[in-house]
Automatic annotation (TrEMBL):
Xref: PANTHER family: AIG2-LIKE PROTEIN D, GAMMA-GLUTAMYLCYCLOTRANSFERASE-RELATED
One GO molecular-function entry: transferase activity
Gene3D superfamilies: Gamma-glutamyl cyclotransferase-like (3.10.490.10)
SUPFAM superfamilies: Gamma-glutamyl cyclotransferase-like
Name recorded for this polypeptide: Putative gamma-glutamylcyclotransferase
InterPro entries assigned: AIG2-like, AIG2-like_dom, GGCT-like, GGCT-like_sf
Protein keywords: Transferase
Organism: Aspergillus bombycis
C-alpha cells in the first residue's frame, strides 16, 4: 500500500485523518505529529500484581469482615481496607450487586483484602459462582496506610452487561453456567 506524505514528511494513511479541507480537531493534529507507536506508549510502567499475596477489591457482601472470615475459614475477622475502583459501575443481578464496566470517572466504593494464597482465591471464586469472573483492576485506598493505590483483582459480572441493565435474558451468562451440563 502506498502512503501519501504531508508537507512535514509524515505518512498520511487513507481514511485515518480527515481531508485538509475539513476542520481539524486538536486531537488529529497531535496524532499527525506523533510517532507511529504513540497510542501504544504509556507514561508509567504497568505493575502487574504478583500471584500472591494480592489485593482483591470487594463491593458487595464481601465488604463485611465476618463474611470474609466465614468464607475463607479464617481464625479471626480480617482487616479490610476502605477502597474504591474507577471506571466501573454496579448493576443488580437479582438481589446481588454485579460490577460492570462503567463510564470514565465512575467510582465504586468498597473494601480491599490481601488474599494470601491460591486456596483463598479459589474459596472466594467458589463463593462468587461462575456468574462472576476475576479481572485485573486498579485499587485506590481511602485510608492513611501505604500503599495508596495498587494493581489488584476484582470479581466482575461474567455475563452480558447490557442484558443485565435491560433486565432481559442473558444468553452469555446462561451459556457460561450451562457449560459442560448440556448434551
Amino acid at each position: 500500500m502506498s502512503q501519501k506524505r504531508d508537507g512535514s514528511g509524515a505518512p498520511q494513511l487513507p481514511g485515518l485523518f480527515p481531508a485538509k479541507a475539513e476542520p481539524v480537531s486538536p486531537f488529529y493534529t497531535i496524532l499527525r505529529s506523533a510517532p507511529p507507536d504513540y497510542l501504544l506508549q504509556r507514561d508509567e510502567p504497568v505493575d502487574f500484581p504478583p500471584d500472591f499475596p494480592v489485593y482483591y477489591f470487594f463491593y458487595g457482601t464481601l465488604t463485611t469482615p465476618a463474611q470474609v472470615k466465614r468464607i475463607l475459614d479464617l481464625p479471626e475477622e480480617p482487616q479490610l481496607r476502605k477502597a474504591e475502583v474507577v471506571g466501573y459501575a454496579v448493576a443488580k443481578w437479582g438481589d446481588y450487586p454485579a460490577l460492570i464496566n462503567g463510564k470514565q470517572g465512575d467510582v465504586v466504593t468498597g473494601s480491599a483484602y490481601l488474599v494470601q494464597s491460591e486456596e483463598e482465591a479459589q474459596k472466594l471464586s467458589y463463593y462468587e459462582t461462575n456468574a462472576y469472573k476475576v479481572a485485573d483492576c486498579r485499587i485506590y485506598f481511602k485510608d492513611v496506610k501505604a500503599p495508596k493505590e495498587i494493581s489488584g483483582k476484582v470479581f466482575m459480572y461474567a455475563g452480558d452487561a447490557q442484558a443485565l441493565l435491560e433486565q432481559r435474558f442473558d444468553r452469555k451468562l446462561w451459556s457460561r453456567q450451562m457449560a459442560g451440563k448440556l448434551g
